[in-house]
Amino acid sequence: MPKLSHLMPRVVVAAFAACIAVSSVSAQQAPTVRIRGAIESVDGNTLGIKTREGSDVKVHMTDNVAVFAVVKTSLAEIKEGSYIGVTGMPQPDGTQKAIAVHIFPENQRGAAEGFRPWDARANSTMTNATVAQTVEGTDGQNITVKYKDGEKKVVVPPDTPIVTFVASDKSEIKPGAKLIIFGAAKKDDGSLEANRVNVGRDGITPPM
Fold first, then answer.
1. What's the burial of 102, exposed, middle or buried (CB within 10 Å: 0-12/13-18/19+)?
2. Which helix (H) or strand (E) holds 5?
């Protein structure tokens, strides 16, 4: 049997390596913050935002920030095979009643796929999934969406906001415009940084 004294250096090295690995993962995964609000100021790459909750925050955009315009589209654009995000409210029968739907561009297919709680309003959900079937119903369009872990039945009432993302540039970023940042990274010093900004075009408030 090996002596304990011979094993100790290896144990210490292994533990130290494990600590480094955990620290590296933690350092790489900065916590993120979802921000909805209106742009109040633009100073270089720094946005002054009045959030939906009424607070004032500063967000620094990365030099290679991706800017997407959120634009209105129609329910007719949602077809079998479309990759969509459904902001919904759970119904007693297990379906989701859509309060907003956004259609992803083809190059964003698979983005954040799945079903999860959401913060559009109390008890809301988000389902990012592929449309498997769409059928006209009595209360609106009945859509079945499928994602890697399951599927959901969604009812989309006729007055539901339907939007899509259009790749754009910083010309969209101006005071008064409404935006949503899905994941601003919170840095160690408390500052916020975004590598993607989604801005409502023509006065639209991103509904998701």
1. buried
2. helix 4-28
Q: CA-CA distance, 36 to 183, in Å (whole number)?
A: 11
Q: Output the CA torsion 163→60→187→199 (10° steps).
A: -10
**What pTM, to 2 d.p., does this model score?**
0.81
pLDDT along the chain (208 residues), means of 10: 46 38 47 96 97 97 97 96 98 97 96 96 97 90 96 96 97 97 94 97 96
| 183, amino acid identity | G
Give the span between the Cα atoms of 47 and 193, in whole angstroms. 10
Q: Choose among 185, 206, 207, 205: nearest CA to 194.
A: 185
| Count of residues making up the chain | 208
